[in-house]
Each structure stands twice: as structure tokens, then as C-alpha cells.
Amino acid sequence: MVINNFMDVKKFINEYGLSDFPIGLGGCRTSDLCFDSCDYDVVVFDGKSEQEKIVNFDNVFVMIHHASLSETNSSRLLQYHKLQIINDDSWDLRMFLSKIDKNHTLLFSDFAKNCLIESQFCCQKTKTAIQMSDIFAPCWQKCATYYLATAIAAINHQRASPSHMLDSLRQLKKNPTNKHISVVNQTVGIERSTPILLERMLKSTIGFSDLIEKNNHSQIIQQKHDYFVKNSMLSDCYFYLGYVNKENFIKIKDTLNREQDLMHILKIAFDVEADTNLLEQHSDLVQKSCHDLLEVLSGV
């Protein structure tokens, strides 16, 4: 099934009762960066704030996102950049996407700054957690690195795509901004990726996803892991699993004091670093990169 074929789209829209709303197709399936394992991201502009819903439609996974035409958050707006319109009788979506396209440079810059600030926050949380013997210290440091990676991608006008981000970063031209990719590689842990480790990370990542998301995202995670391993893309798989865990960890960051038991899952899911001295070194490296990149963005 190809969801951007007109008849298939009509069938999908009708089956899920979505015909009354503007709808677009986003994600990897509208770009050159697409694996057989990639799901279809269908964005329904119904103004609802519901969590993503994952369905199996004609033997492929479709993730239904709910969105608003009055959205102002740069992170979400960039996910709609270059969205492929599949239903828009009123032309409201076409006008909305036109505004995003017109302002996409500023949106990428704003998103990058936000990611760098979040990364610095996570670095500080790491250091504070180490001082307080908080078990979540290594999780905060992983988040800091992923925020840095996302910021570098945004500075290069690349949409945040965890399945493809590591490979995209590898292919960026060498310049003063992109030299900070070496810090991502040095602090994220990809050098440890092996099939055995990835299998253990996968099980814990799925468990964490089921606990936090509760929307069958684990089926997509499994599919992508299998694709990466089958194609000997072990580092990409490691990066992808860590990114998924970062997204779910951030969702519970304000209630960690009540979630101590989760560390036994996160220890494996994040493949955490136990050496606190090394954690602090990583934190310093990431913080310096964030500082340097924020200076560059402030001067633009």
C-alpha cells in the first residue's frame, strides 16, 4: 500500500472518519530519507491535543498525529514543513503550510536555540544529580547529547528524524558548526553498539514505551530495530533507540522522584554510563558545544 495514492488515501480517511478535516502526510515518506521500515505519518488538523495513535492499515503502520492550524511552537511547525496535502477542501492547510515555508529559516533557528538551551539544562541536571547521588544522572546526560544532535540538524535545516539523523549528520559538510558532531559521537555511546546489546536495549526501550506512551509505538520500534540490524546499521539503531528513550524520558522528567523503579529499565534502554567522572567530562563537552553554537546563532 502506498498511502499517498489517491484511492488508498480516500480509503484510509473514510475508514477512520477523518474526511471532515484538513489532512497531510509528513515524515520520512515525503522525503528521500525513507526505509522500508518507516511508518506513515498522517497529520489530522482537527485541533485536538490527543496523543499520537498508531494503527495497522493494509499491513503498514500509520501514525495519526493531531494538530492545530493555529500552532505556534517551532518544533511542531517544522514537522509540518513540506507536508504533502491529502485533504484540504477549504484551502486552510495550504495557506498554513505556505506561511511555514516562508518562515522556515527562522523556525529552524528558533528550534535549534531551544534545543541548545534544553541541552544545557540537561547537562546541569546531570551535574546536580551526580552531586546528590541521583540515579538518573546518566539519563540526563544522554538527553543532553540528543538535544545537541537535534540542534545541529536544525541549524542545517534538517527536520528531526531519529531514524535518519545519525546518517544525515555524518554526511554534513565540514564547517565550524558541524565540527560539534564529534561531541555527539563521543558522548552518545554508539561505539558500544553490537547486535547483542541492541537486542537488550530494544526490549527495555519497548518496555519503557509501553509504560509511558501506551499506544503500540513498540511495534514500530521493533520493526525499525529489525531493519537496522538486518542491514548492519548498528550505530544508527543505537542512536534511534536512545532518541526514542530520550523523548519518553522527557515526558516524565517532572515526576522522576516518583519513578525510581524505572531506572532498572532505563539503565539498559539508555545503555547508561556508570563512571561519574566520565559523565561529568561528557557534560562539560556538550555544554561547551552548546555555548559555542548559541553564540553562532545569536550572531546570525
Structural write-up:
This protein has 300 residues and is α+β, with helices and mostly antiparallel strands. It folds into two domains: 6-102, Beta Polymerase, domain 2 (2-Layer Sandwich), CATH 3.30.460; 105-298, no CATH class. The protein is 56% helix and 8% strand. The chain has twelve helices and five strands. A five-stranded mixed β-sheet has the order 3-4-2-1-5, with helices on both faces. Strand 3 (53-57) and strand 4 (60-66) form a beta hairpin. It is globular and about 60 Å long. 39% of the residues are buried. Mean pLDDT is 92; it is low at 1-7.
Total domain modules = 2
Unreliable residue runs = 1-7
Order of strands, widest sheet? 3-4-2-1-5
> How far apart are the first and last residues' alpha carbons, in Å?
44 Å
Strand content: 5-15%
Q: How many beta strands in the DSSP annotation?
A: 5
Report the radius of gyration as a whole number of Å. 19 Å
On the 0-100 scale, what is the average pLDDT?
92
Order of helices and strands: HEEEEHEHHHHHHHHHH
The best one-word shape is: globular
Helical percent range?
55-70%
Briefly summarize what is shown:
With 300 residues, this protein is α+β, with helices and mostly antiparallel strands. It folds into two domains: 6-102, 2-Layer Sandwich (Beta Polymerase, domain 2), CATH 3.30.460; 105-298, no CATH class. The chain has helices spanning 6-15, 74-79, 92-102, 104-131, 137-155, 165-170, 181-188, 195-212, 217-230, 234-251, 263-269, 276-298; strands spanning 23-26, 40-44, 53-57, 60-66, 84-87.
